[in-house]
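Worked Example 4.2. Read the sequence first, then its structure tokens.
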Amino acid sequence: MAEQRKLPFVWELDNKGIISHAIATRHSAPDIYREDIRKYCAGKKHVLTESYDYDSLLESIDLREMVYKMLSGLKNEPRNFRQYIELKQMAETIQALDHIIQETADEMKITNVGLETPEEQTETGKIYDKAGEILGFSDDVIDAYENGSTQAMMQLMNEKTTQLKNKLTKEEFEKHMKRNATMAERSLPYMKAPTLIAAGTYHFFQTPTILDFYKEKGIKIKKI
């Protein structure tokens, strides 16, 4: 297993003394957070992710395929051998954090629940396709994530929200921005017991965020 790190964005959610946690995920990342994921799954009755159909696994497989295509072009070029080795290691360890969380919950016999339906995820996919790189994890977003920088992430998300508004139709933009409220609302009934909520980083920094909706409901939030 790769050297493990702490998850950079985790919040404690206090719902009248019942403690849950929220994790902001990277949909594709090195497998370096598994131990911390187990820590936050422990003692939970439910684990909630965007969708419980393992689409995130398919995404990580697609990424691996892309890396292997790059590898095939480097394999027979000695001057690129170091890059070949680095890419090969990345392809072998890349995972979707959402999938690792779901997988860990399964191993620990915790009930997995999807916060969106497959139909809603399909509609979201269409918007992502149109949005292109705006909703992707660019280098600056990855740096802000790995450094756990709330300020940098908020600034980047504000910029991306403006770009997204200019790229999408009004209906598409409103549908996209409504996702945070929908997922927060659907998670609330589960938070009557200790629960782990995991969603993409954008949902915790693109305002109004999931956390903003929790605050409105009186849930006390503390970044860990």
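Now turn to a second chain, presented in exactly the same format:
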Amino acid sequence: MRQKFTCPNCSTRFKADIPDDLPMVMCPTCGTNIPVIRDEIGSVGDNLRQAATREGNWIVWAAAAFAAEVSRDEYKTAAEPICKTSALANERILSGVRKEVKEGKLKPAAAKFAKASMEQASTLKRLEALPQPAADEARLARWLSYLKLEAELFATAGRKLKAGDKPGAEHVFAKLTPNANKANNQVLPFEFHYCRLEPQKFT
């Protein structure tokens, strides 16, 4: 039976085909268990029910059902809250960092870039865990590789600044915008807002 769900934790909306008597499904974004509300109509055979529920396999079954049918709109709906959280976090983390670098306050700026790199890496793991539209798997793999590179560039910039190498850090900054442009071009069909990379805000 197909049902629509909205995660109470992260507000992700998704659909899944749920066998009869399964107690809950797992949010594909944050992993929260969501109770299944049923009426009295329809059922599935005992073999299917037992196979789906044995040793927690209902979680795997539900996630697979969602993954098999995820659309671009559904992927965007799942990804954007993750990206929004990360974007707002990095706005706070990197606030004032451009001025600090300009004024030679390299150690505080280094700490901010190191922290931003960890935030980006954490976001990347959450995005990599999302089910993807089958037709877009190659496109999204390239996009995620550019997101990974941005996290690595942030980390490198932090190390350069910590070592007092301002020219070296600026050389790293120069790589951020071209990388962001490549990333954003990969996912133009998704019409992302928060999942767009905009390093020019910070560097």
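Notes for the reader: The chain has a mean pLDDT of 83. The chain has seven helices and four strands.
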